[in-house]
Amino acid sequence: MSTETPVDATCRMCDTQYVATVSSAMYTRFMNRDRAVQRLFPKETPDVREILLGHRSGYYLCPECWVEEEE
Prior knowledge:
Helices cover 45% and strands 20% of the residues. With 71 residues, the chain is an alpha+beta fold. It has a two-stranded antiparallel sheet with strand order 1-2. A hairpin with a 6-residue loop joins strand 1 and strand 2 (17-23). The longest helix has 12 residues, at 46-57.
């Protein structure tokens, strides 16, 4: 039986919190820097992978604010 872990990240620009739910085993491997996010979560969307990266690093821009930042 697989367990899941909710992972959150808060956008630095708009202060909105985003949550994704992922496999607990893969989350542990990711947090231990076992492999790249793309290798551990190949079926997740890029937005979910960005939430994971933002959660681990402490810096996250949501998709809407990311577009604004690039302009």
